[in-house]
Specification:
single chain, 241 residues, alpha+beta, Aminopeptidase, 29% helix, 26% strand, Acetyltransferase, protein N-terminal-serine acetyltransferase activity, Acyl_CoA_acyltransferase, GNAT_dom
Amino acid sequence: MSPFDDANFCFPVQPGLLANDRVKLTLMTPTRHASAFFHATSAHPDIYAHMPSGPFATEADFVTFLQQKALADPAFLILAIIDKTQPPSAEDDEGALAGMMSFFDTSTIHLSTEIGYVVTLPPFRRTHVTTNAVGLMLQYAFTAEADGGMGLRRVQWKANSVNAASIRVAQRLGFRDEGLLRWHMVFRDGVQKGKVGNGRPLPKGSLDGDVGRDTVVLGLCWDEWEGGVRETVSELMVRTV
């Protein structure tokens, strides 16, 4: 039985394409992963400073997020990152829960998706985890459908313009800067939630506590992947400590 049998994703998922000898990506489920993930992030609300979701006040709030996104939207696939270099855990028989990543805004018509909702838990930062997890997602995205992949033409990455770490990760893995979306998002009650925005005053009549965000758009396309990015990503995955 595949861990993705319960996924409501618009593409079939072959687990073998989302694992290597150090990292595995599996369907994040409320029953197996939510409690550990919530408790690992609850002391670090800054994790959500650049994201439209979170921080989550309770474990039930995080479960609701998973249900509304992963289970209700076929364009959305939330993945738990498992570090296979660590001992087995309650969350996975092959290793420790190391974070979360997602495919979203996925289109079977336009053959595109976005990688986002990227959270690497604090103990696993600056290790092999993030590079390998994103690399596995890219391999699955650009592998032909006949070989079990998604056969996509484009993968997108959008980041808060002040989130230099997220932008560096994408650039390092071959994404190209494509532009800046000014005033792309409004974080409702962003001040209270610790959101980081563009720092510019909001228009007259905006609600107290709202925060405005500019967004950097980066993209990676199939021809760039075939033209050398695949090899670069594979080398980075092997080389990363």
